[in-house]
């Protein structure tokens, strides 16, 4: 059975990630797994320090460093266990039938790859422990996960408490956005939600936009069309989302034309950085 995987790292995003993942699990009716990965990589500061220890006391100090590393690993393990238990209790408020906890050693991306066959949706905070106090900075793992994982990815803002009833779907007329419309139709997370189909362009609305709207409506989706004017796609989409109090933004992980490649000055990156609502990256 496939699970919703909530990636927990101990940052301030952990509770919002859990809440968003619980909403997804409740909506799709599938189990929720709270995943905490202990990165076994040795801290860079320790590696540099060991290279500058004098010859006379080198062995003794390296032994002490090894003991400190062992203590730190034990504390991190215990902390993760307590964190998972607390978040399991928090997730129970969403009345989910099955909630599981997993704690693994290793790398987050590799761990998610190993779990791919049983993963329905991955849920992450847009920032991790290192940048948790800076809402304009994206987490270091996020790009790697997006590039490596083929499941849908829900990216959580710092707070999530209200289940969305509508979503913005950005359309640009490209082949990829055409496929995105089809995937949105078939994505259970979006079933029954109002779709705000938006296009940002200073030209006349193309027939492809009307065709996309028609396809959505044929499948029973309530569609609100919006042709937005502006030179910066991300700013126009975010302004529209805020003005209409829309609870979710759906986009592809990759795009073309005005929606450039992910993390290369892309519209997706700017929206992700500045959004205050969850972003669903449809794969």
Automatic annotation (TrEMBL):
* InterPro entries for this protein: Universal_stress_UspA, UspA
Q: Which Pfam families match?
A: Usp
Q: UspA domain: which residues?
A: 1-155, 215-283
User: What family is this protein classified in?
Assistant: Belongs to the universal stress protein A family.
PANTHER family on file: STRESS RESPONSE PROTEIN NHAX, UNIVERSAL STRESS PROTEIN UP12
Q: Which protein are we looking at?
A: Universal stress protein family protein
